Amino acid sequence: MTEYLIIYEPVGRRGNCQDQESLLTCARRLGIGINSICGGTGVCHTCKIMVLSGIVSTPTSNELETFTSEEFKEGWRLACQAYPQSNCKLYIPSESMTSPQRTQVEGIELKVPLEPPVKAYHVLITEPSLADLRADAGRLLEQINRQAQPGCDRLDIDLLRALSPQLRENNWDCRAIVREKEVIAVGPSSGRQLGLAVDLGSTKIAAYLVDLNNGKTVIAKGAMNPQISYGEDIISRIISAIKNPEDGIKMRDLATEAINQLASEMCREAGLDLKEVFESVVVGNTAMHHLFLGLPVRQLALPPFVSAVNQPLDIKARDIGLDIAAGAYVHLLPNIAGFVGADHVAMLLATDAWQVEGTVLALDIGTNTEVSFISNGKISSVSCASGPAFEGGHIKDGMRATRGVIERIQISGDTIHYQ
C-alpha cells in the first residue's frame, strides 16, 4: 500500500492519501467538504474536481458518461471515482463544495466627496417633423448641451445603434448618462445610477455595488478568485501564462466571468438592473491588472520587474467582457512597480495616508502585501508574499477560511466560546 501527498485547492488543505483510497474519501478524512449526494457511488456527478498535476486512476464508466474528451484533457474527474497514483494537486470548484469559504468584504466606510465621473441629465426632445429634419443624435446632444458644461460632442457607438428606437419608445422624454464629453447611455427618465467597485485579489475577489447619487454601498459580495487553479501565488500564474499563452487568456476570462457573476448576483439580490451600472473601477496588484487586461507578463518575472503600463486607464467595459451598461467604462488605477500595484494605490488614496504629517507606515495585507513608508511627503514602497502565512500554505495545521477553521475564540472563566 502506497501513500501520496494530495493538495486540495482553493482551500489550501493537504494530506496523505493511500492508493486504495478515493480522492473523495481522502478529502472527507482531511475535513474538506465535497458534495456527494449519492454517497460516493459515482451516480450523482456532484463531486467534480480538476486534477491540476499528478496521475490518477483511469476513468470509470460513470466518468465516461459524465465528461467529454475535452474535459478529460482539462483534468476533470469525479472525486469518488478517482484514486491517486502519484502526488497530486487538485482544484475543487465552488459548486462542488459543501460550504462556501469565508471572504471578507466588510470594512469601515470613509466619507469622501462624491464626484462620480458620470452624470445624469433629464432631457425633453422635440419630436422631428417634415419641417424639422435634424438627426436624432443631434437633437439629443443639443438638449444635453443646454444643461451640461463643457458639453458633449459624441455618442457611444452601441448607444447610437439603439438610439432611434429608444427615443421613440420613451416618447422623447429620457435620461441621458454622460461621461466627460461622451453620452454613454439613454433610458427612461427614472432610474438608478450605479457604480461597481472591484478588488481583484490573488486569492479572492471583493465587489461592491455603489449608488452614485449618494455614495452609499448598496451591497457587497466576495468570491474566491478562480485563477487559483493556475497557481496559488502570483509568480506561478505568471509562469503559467508565459509557458502557455492560452492559460493567460483563460485566466483573463475566469476573472471576467467571476466579476460578472458577482455583479449579477448583487443586482438580483438588491432588485436592481445590471444595465444601470454606468461606471466601474477595478484594482489589483500589477500581475492581476495585466492578466485582467490580457497584457504581457513576462517582464514582470524578470529583473528589473517592470510593468507594461503604469498610467491610469479608462477602457470600455464591453471590451473587457463586463456585462454592465454597454457604453460604460472601467477605470483602472495606475501601477507603481512590478509588485506594487493599483490596489495599493487605492489604499493610499482611500486612507489619505500620503497626506498625514509625520512618519506613517501603511500596509495593504493580502496574498501579496505592499508596505509604504511615508515621511515628509515622500513614499517608499516594498512588497512581500504574505498569503501563505495567513492562508495555510505549507503549514501543517493551517488552511484557508472554510469549514472547520477557527476564526475567533474567547475564554471567559472556565468557558470557551469560538466561531
Could you describe the 3D structure shown?
This protein has 419 residues and is α+β, with helices and mostly antiparallel strands. Helices cover 25% and strands 28% of the residues. The protein contains 11 helices and 20 strands. Strands 12-11-10-13-15-14 form a 6-stranded mixed β-sheet. Strands 2-1-5-3-4 form a 5-stranded mixed β-sheet. The longest helix has 26 residues, at 245-270.
Number of strands: 20
Indicate the mean pLDDT.
88
The major β-sheet equals: 6 strands, mixed
Strand order of the largest sheet: 12-11-10-13-15-14
The computed structural class is alpha+beta
Low-confidence stretches: none
In percent, how much strand structure appears in the residues? 25-35%
What overall form do the CA principal axes indicate?
globular
Q: Percentage of helical residues?
A: 25-40%
Distance between the termini: 38 Å
What does the radius of gyration come to? 25 Å
- Number of distinct helices: 11
